[in-house]
Amino acid sequence: MAATKPEEISHPPMDQLQGLEYCIDSNPSWAETIALGFQHYILALGTAVMIPSFLVPVMGGSDDDKVRVVQTLLFVEGINTLLQTLFGTRLPTVVGGSYAFMVPVISIIRDPSFAMIEDPHLRFLSTMRAVQGALIVASSIQIILGFSQIWAICSRFFSPLGMVPVIALVGFGLFDRGFLVVGTCVEIGIPMLILFIALSQYLKNFQIRQIPILERFALLISTTVIWAYAHLLTASGAYKHRPDLTQHSCRTDRANLISSAPWIKIPYPLEWGAPTFDAGHSFGMMAAVLVSLVESTGAYKAASRLASATPPPAHVLSRGIGWQGIGILLNGLFGTLTGSTVSVENVGLLGSNRIGSRRVIQVSAGFMIFFSMLGKFGALFASIPFPMFAAVYCVLFGIVASVGLSFLQFTNMNSMRNLFICGVSLFLGLSIPEYFREYTIRAFHGPAHTNAGWFNDFLNTIFFSSPTVALIVAVFLDNTLDYKDSAKDRGMPWWAKFRTFKGDSRNEEFYTLPFNLNRFFPPS
């Protein structure tokens, strides 16, 4: 038997991911683009509905208020996505709501000055205005860090090794949005999971007119089939005598969105009234803005790989963060109850259907804006049960996490130093936030519990985030532990050429601003 050659048992590192049908600046036909954009819109509905559905009732809001917040959030998501794909990083990323803002928002809701208001609607409006004020002030963090290029300077301390746990935990860190939610209604969650995997993976070679229709539109097809099945179960009375939690998770008519939604409603700034400002609320919200910054940094790196682009240069990444800060400012002005971050599930969908086209995401932004104004139609799609979204998240979050792990190919994983940094960062990135979550569930407050509420919110928000903990641990260890003699092991020779815009000729193709704007904002 002939000896195995080294090239037969190893795979050379690749700057760009192979096997994609369309990359960042190539586009499918317009018919496909519209259908794919609608698919991204459907996926973005999950977070856009979940966050207001949880927060609005706690604030004292009615079903009408919940619908208005969902519409407003989708409207602002569409605007922010267009801004990011045109003037930000220009990567095919949907910019949606963020769970990172839940801790400071809940802290504002529990503020005694609002809790003592007896009229529920007045309490809702007062709380909403306080959240708006905190978001407006906190948005300045990303605007300053981004447009001043401070984040670009900070990113020079990142390496492929340091980014592995950050990007991986952008996906893995959302495990509680996956099967834990599927389990609340297994009769529709598990069929959705099985059907989506079957269509996107096992039947991906089935083609109509040379288009892999099942792989490319697996989300739309599986959502249509299982949604119809869920509606059949609801209409047949299968959940009539089931517990309230089961009914809320499984029924297609429990959200009360369709009946409460107006036919036409255009969101506008300050529609809830003038924002109110409080220093303590703003400081707590700043922590969520920092968490959003870290999570988006990891998601941008993953999106660049799944769009078959080069890693975004430092100034492009910083530019994207600046525009994301503008997005959070818009969140505050319009009143969406949450800030902005890159939608991880939509990044995962780039890999699932192998379409990394920027135009597809811009079309999806158009759908967000359009359906947010046509309330009844948008509410119809928003009535999809949450376990169906969670089933898809199980796949898409996993894809994003695996993209993070793929950066290990540029490092030396035979180095004990690298094994230590990678392993400890991943473990602590999962373990510390889980401790904070479990502590909060038992004690009804986070581990940081002093008389200074803003300090509590700041620490609890930071350490609730897996990617943020991973970044702190990984970047600190990577830049202090034998860093002078380990540049090659860390992957720095490969990483160095992507630090500057002119370091690689492909950067101009992927990241140049439209309308010849680079004349006024020359890349560094």
Automatic annotation (TrEMBL):
Q: Answer yes or no on keyword Membrane.
A: yes
What's the protein's topology in the membrane? Multi-pass membrane protein
Q: Which PANTHER family match?
A: XANTHINE-URACIL / VITAMIN C PERMEASE FAMILY MEMBER
Q: Which Pfam families match?
A: Xan_ur_permease
* InterPro entries the UniProt entry points to: NCS2
Using the UniProt record, give the first listed, main subcellular location. membrane
Annotated TM spans? 38-57, 93-109, 130-151, 157-175, 180-199, 219-239, 360-382, 388-407, 419-436, 458-477
Phylogenetic lineage: Eukaryota, Viridiplantae, Streptophyta, Embryophyta, Tracheophyta
The GO terms this record gives for MF are: transmembrane transporter activity
Assigned keywords, A-Z: Membrane, Transmembrane, Transmembrane helix
Q: Does the keyword Transit peptide apply?
A: no
Where does this protein reside within or beyond the cell?
Answer: Membrane
Q: What is this protein called?
A: Nucleobase-ascorbate transporter 2 isoform X1
Q: Which domain of life is it from?
A: Eukaryota
Q: Which organism is it from?
A: Vigna radiata var. radiata
Offer a single GO CC term for the protein: membrane
Family according to the record: Belongs to the nucleobase:cation symporter-2 (NCS2) (TC 2.A.40) family.
